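Quick one before lunch.
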Amino acid sequence: MITSVIIPVIVMAVTVQQQADRYELMRERMVRTQIMDRGLSNPSVIAAMKKVPRHLFVPKEYQDEAYNDYPLPIGYYQTISQPYIVAYMTDVLRPGKGMKALEIGTGSGYQAAVLAEIVEKVYTIEIVPELARESAALLKKLGYDNITCRYGDGYKGWEEHAPFDLIIVTAAAESVPQPLIDQLAEGGRLVIPVGKPNAVQELQLITKRKSRTETKRLTFVRFVPFKRL
Ligand code: SAH
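Model of the S-adenosyl-L-homocysteine complex:
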């Protein structure tokens, strides 16, 4: 009687462990072939990308594709970015210990988790209420107690917690929201896709120095549109 209960439990535990190992291998391979082979070498970004279980941030039916070299749907017409783009945007922000970051567009919560592995504190805002709720619950379940999530329109940033060392916008805006520039700390960096929705946009890196901003055009990207409430 007892063994008939214990054996299935052991079998299940072994299967869960094997699955986790399989995803870890996929993650290692993703980091090597999609990120390091493309020239990214920042050790803290690489360590974060190796650690965060990306498959848990995508819908069940896409879990086996989570480590592939493309974005995936996360519902509500939104997407989780391609792993390389997440790593690239994190890298250009030059995140470090003790920093405070703001993200606009929580989506699945994956980018927030990657940043939270490196910096001290992440604030993140999501405009789709269901996604805001689901990602907050997942991040909590995974133990990310240095991430604070909020539902709302990120256009105005999060004044209460400003200034931020780093700001990342993961939806494409036609222009850079002024409140985000205002909430950037001296020496702070903001990365944002700028351009028309449903087109190719320009990824810009904005640095604040002596209260003035410097804009660097990095590359072309394709992001979902920045919405307004
Ligand atoms: N960083 C996310 C990517 C999500 S896609 C991830 O790692 O999964 C971009 C997200 O930005 C979408 O979920 C979209 O709903 C959200 N978004 C668009 N406009 C917004 C706004 N004004 N404020 C907050 N979130 C916004």
